[in-house]
Amino acid sequence: MAKPSGFLEYKRALPEDRPVPERIKDWKEFHMHCPEDMAREQAARCMDCGVPFCHAGLTLGWFPSGCPVNNLIPEWNELIYLGLWEQAYRRLAMTNNFPEFTGRVCPALCEGACTNGYDDEPVTIRNNENMIVEKAFAEGWVYPEKPIQRTGKKVAVVGSGPAGLAAADQLNRAGHTVTVYERSDRPGGLLMYGIPNMKLDKDVVMRRIRLMEELGVTFKTGVEIGKDLSSDQLVNDYDAVVLCNGATKPRDIRVESGRALEGIHFAVDFLSQNTKSLLDSDLCDGNYISAKDKHVIVIGGGDTGTDCVGTSIRHGCLSVIQFEILPEKPDGRALDNPWPEWPDVCKVDYGQEEARYLYGEDPRHYCVMTKKFTGDENGHITAAHTVQVKWEKDETGRYNLKEIPGTEKEWKADLVLLAMGFLGPEDTVAEQLGIARDGRSNYQADEEHYATSKKGVFAAGDARRGQSLVVWAINEGRGAARECDRYLMGETRLR
């Protein structure tokens, strides 16, 4: 413990985000970096407790607890406090390939398990992590360190999202020759086209991609496996294959009528087209779904829904409403959600904060089910029709959805965005290779070995686990790389 009394002397403090009136006018990151003196003070709050749940990476009940990549948080917090920033970076890089990503977009499962958070506020772990890695880049401590020796083995990684990048980075460190296939025009997968620029600047993603290229990783973009290159040929051309192609089938909505109306889009199309147009032409080419001067309804209350809210606001929408079919979460931990589980509580994210500023109220409406859509004579949506619902527990303990009579409502809508999650990976690769899948259509591969039913083919990330967090994808990519290396070499030093 760097300062035994630090958690008593200092209160939790975060750098202020960019002011709402300023940030909604551009696509720059809204989070500000933590000043060095603030980071050292916040690091001093780390108790270096006897059982550091912060880096446990467990699942307790229904909720995660601690960092999935097992970051050695108390160790690098102490190094921050002592001013040993390079050593802090080296310790962080031991467990996390991409702290510049998790330091920006991770919900900080570590903070939910922080011992300080039991009866006070947790340490600002995510901010400290981001401060470490950005200082490391600025000081030149992040540089390509190529493997001393190549193994002669070739590995193909399908997908360049966080799982694919982590797998590729680890396998390259082991000395294998790695080629990453990405069907989009730019590498990065979810990091590039799934997360808006104001949360994760794409220069940050490309900075890491360029570094990996210098290390020897080859990226082939615009190549869809199963279409541009057959899955069988891929398996034949490489000594091993790691599938990290994500959960990319968006969940659709079931309504009585009106689903085919124009103006109803999946959130993934809305967000990805916006980012591509932003990068290609600063939105001048018009090749995106615009929310400008429209009444927008977002169906889905998760992070993707929030990103749709924030993006619509930056387009200049007239209004934005967000429907959530579940009840509003409590302000504090429920009795069945004790520390060190992740606190399942109500939070105001950046999109809701911006909507409050512009329209005077939180855009979220809870326990709302969309029944149908109606449109004009041109086949374009004009309204969404909803009903309030309640969740009732039956005799088995299972919750069932019940409509509340008399709560029907019509909402004006020019644009509806479906942000209800994803169902699993697309079918092509699994069908071509004859890979077994689980009940949720994900690639069947256990969490210890990551091996699919096809010899020499491994799976990781959302394609194996189902839709999840960036940090879990990194964890899975590392795990699949470890087992792939063991398969190729008979042993492994990867962790």
Short structural description:
This protein is α/β, with parallel strands linked by helices and 495 residues long.
List keywords for this structure.
5-stranded parallel sheet; 16% strand; 16 strands; FAD/NAD(P)-binding domain; 34% helix; alpha/beta; 495 residues; Fumarate Reductase Iron-sulfur Protein, Chain B, domain 2
Describe this structure in words.
The chain contains 18 helices and 16 strands. The protein is α/β, with parallel strands linked by helices. It has a five-stranded parallel beta sheet, with helices on both faces. A five-stranded parallel beta sheet has the order 7-15-8-9-10. Strands 11, 12, 13 and 14 form a four-stranded antiparallel beta sheet that branches. The chain is globular. The model has no long low-confidence stretch (mean pLDDT 96).
Structural class: alpha/beta
* Share in helix: 25-40%
Cα end-to-end separation:
26 Å
Radius of gyration: 23 Å
Task: Give the overall silhouette.
Answer: globular
Percent strand equals 15-25%
What is the total number of structural domains?
3
**Count of DSSP E strands?**
16
Number of helices: 18
Strand count, sense and barrel status of the largest sheet are: 5 strands, parallel
Mean of the pLDDT scores?
A: 96
Q: Write the CATH homologous superfamily of the largest domain.
A: FAD/NAD(P)-binding domain
CATH architectural designation of the largest domain: 3-Layer(bba) Sandwich
**Largest sheet, order of strands side by side?**
5-4-3-6-16
Question: Assembly type of the shown chains?
Answer: single chain
- CATH topology of the largest domain, which one? FAD/NAD(P)-binding domain
Low-confidence stretches: none
